Amino acid sequence: MKKILVVALGVFVLTVAIFFINKQYLGGSNLNISLQEKDDLTSNKPETGIPKQVNDIDIHAHQGNLQNKGYVIKINNALYYSDRTALYKQVDSHITKLSDDSANYINAEKGWLYYSNKTDKEKIYRIKLDGSKREKISDDSVNYVVVKNEWIYFMNKSDSFRLYKMKMDGSSKTKMTDEQSFYINVVDDWLYYGGENDNIFKIRLDGSNKTKINDDRSHFINIVDGWAFYLNWADKGIYKIKIDGTSREKIVRGNVISFNVMNNWIYYSASDNGIHRVKVDGTEEKQITNINGYSINLLGDQIFILTDSKIVSMNTNGTDLQTIETASKQLISEKDKQTAIEAVKKHLEIKNIVGYVKDYTKVEVDHVDDKGRMIIQVYNVGNNRTSTINWYTYDPETKTLNAQFEE
User: Domain 59-326 classified CATH 2.120.10.30?
Assistant: First the structure.
């Protein structure tokens, strides 16, 4: 009996000791993590080329966007997009210019944006979601960039438009085919593309099992739910065919310029006849806007269209038409903003402006006017009120600074 009591006492003491060690050194209360929570903490590898947080983007629409220049992508509540001049981030109504790159084929992976930089001969660049650490990762000129599972697949214009892949840091560059390749889709373990004679082919991601799917000259290839949708260059109509090469069907008659597919709808641009949508079975065809454009991108319940001068967006039923603000004169980069603030501070010190106290007075960019000039407020805060010293206008192009009130 004494032996049992001694053993029980020993177990109790050992348990108490482990408890206090756990609390002291490991923060024991923080170790109560379920198996599911552990999986969430340790598994950050996405199943697709879209990061896990992009849960409001349809993967098929993302593939379709990449066949249409891929100039918009949404991550959580942030919209990233590029016009012909720069790359932007928009959260609610706040717009920030991330870089001066004209970005196409924008992909998101593990906190980075990957894209073909038209500003630098369409070379592959990447940049952090906050606009930091921008870097070039390939000197090849490329189109149709698709990022998936730590690999970048692309059409290499620097090598006669052949199909290539490489790691996300630019290493392990590998040629996958010896033919010209366009309209790349990566679905599961297969890569689909327009190859010889513009026919649709598929190939394993390791470069094996190349298989021909159709005999049509195929553009804007979009792989959705076991079907390959494409624009038949012979009659400019939209067709679909199963990825095993069977059940070829015509959905839309000719005069189609471009199209995209999402949620059982096809959205297409008709020659000089606006944007239309139709069910994937060819029913319920309808014009949703008379605006002419091309390169249709789809995000959730929104459709984005490139026109000759701007990006416009609307709901997928054609309502709530808006213009996406992209004019450089209405936007400022963080670098330009800091340059303006430093110019104002230097002016205040040189002029010995009354009320200005270094490291206490606030100097902030309030907004940008319609001529691209920054409007800057200089003020002190005290006794629960704001005391403005002056307002200044700074022109980032001419580097000139003007006070709005006499000094």
Answer: yes
